[in-house]
């Protein structure tokens, strides 16, 4: 992976993490299965992160970008 790909992806992922601060996913667990009657329990699991993590990624991408530009010149 080149340095340009690294800093571009860091900035893009940082922006996405600042816009979307998390997501939810669901799991289904079988509680009872009595003949034709089936009882399931659906549980939601939130995954959250702070927008600060996205800002740190953007800042890190900018730092890598400026160092890459200085190294090329």
Give the spatial strand order of the biggest sheet. 1-2
Integer count of domains = 1
Q: Please trace the helix and strand order, writing H or E for each element.
A: HEEH
* Biggest sheet record: 2 strands, antiparallel
Taking Cα atoms only, what radius of gyration do you get, to the nearest Å? 21 Å
Structural class: alpha+beta
Low-confidence stretches: none
Terminal residue distance: 21 Å
Oligomer: single chain
Outline: rod-shaped
How would you characterize the overall build of this protein?
- Helix 1 (3-19) packs antiparallel against helix 2 (51-72).
- The longest helix is centred in the C-terminal third of the chain and has 22 residues, at 51-72.
- The protein contains two helices and two strands.
- The chain is rod-shaped and about 75 Å long.
- Strand 1 (22-34) and strand 2 (37-48) form a beta hairpin.
- The protein is of the alpha+beta class.
- A two-stranded antiparallel sheet has the order 1-2.
- Helices cover 53% and strands 34% of the residues.
- It has one domain.
């Amino acid at each position: 992976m080149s340095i340009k790909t690294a800093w571009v992806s860091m900035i893009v992922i940082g922006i996405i993490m600042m816009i979307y601060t998390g997501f939810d996913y669901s799991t289904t667990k079988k509680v009872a299965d009595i003949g034709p009657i089936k009882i399931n329990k659906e549980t939601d699991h939130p995954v959250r992160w702070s927008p600060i993590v996205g800002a740190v990624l953007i800042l890190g991408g900018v730092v890598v970008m400026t160092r890459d530009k200085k190294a090329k010149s």
